[in-house]
Amino acid sequence: MAITASGIFGLTFEKQLIDTAGVSMESETLVKGALITDSATPAFDTHDFFSDLEANEVSGTGYSAGGVALTTTEITVGSPAAGQTKFDHADPSWSGSTISNAMALVEYLEVGASSADMLLLLLDFVTAVTTSNGLLAVQIAANGAAYWDLTP
Question: Do you find a cis peptide bond into 92, omega within 30 degrees of 0?
Fold first, then answer.
């Protein structure tokens, strides 16, 4: 059991494409980011709700269960390059936090209970992060949290 890579949760992506999700990835009130430990084993083809990973969420001072709202969310066509579409948001952070072994940021759409909150993607830190009354900041890449190349 371990996080071995970043990825997009396919079932939620499918729901977005066929319009059965009922919510937008650009919603600034619904997109959340939570930290999980390396004891999680994400399954990008079969996990679809936050409850699938919630048992592996970190805890600590300065961190609230469920994570933080991801602000300035946007989807941009033609970025980072022609034929690509980018999903991006502001960098999430937890100041004054004491957190042990955060291994990944899990992004999800908060629509109700964790058994209904739709997983979007997971950003693997590669190395676990620990803070002691400090700042844990996740820097999102210049190309966004995720992007799709739509060219054949």
Answer: no
